[in-house]
Amino acid sequence: MENKGNKRFYLGLMLIVIGAVLILERLNLLPWNVADLLISWQMLLVAIGVFSLAGGNKTGGTILIVIGGFFLLPELISVPHEVRRLYWPLILVAIGAALLFRHKGCKTQIERGVEGKDFNEFDDFVIFGGREIFVNSQSLKGGRSTSIFGGIEYDFRQAKLAPEGAFIDSIAVFGGCGIKVPLDWVVRNEVTTIFGAFTDKRGDMFNRGASYDPSKTLVIRGMTIFGGFEVKYV
Question: Cα–Cα distance between 99 and 90 in angstroms, integer?
Answer without folding.
Answer: 14
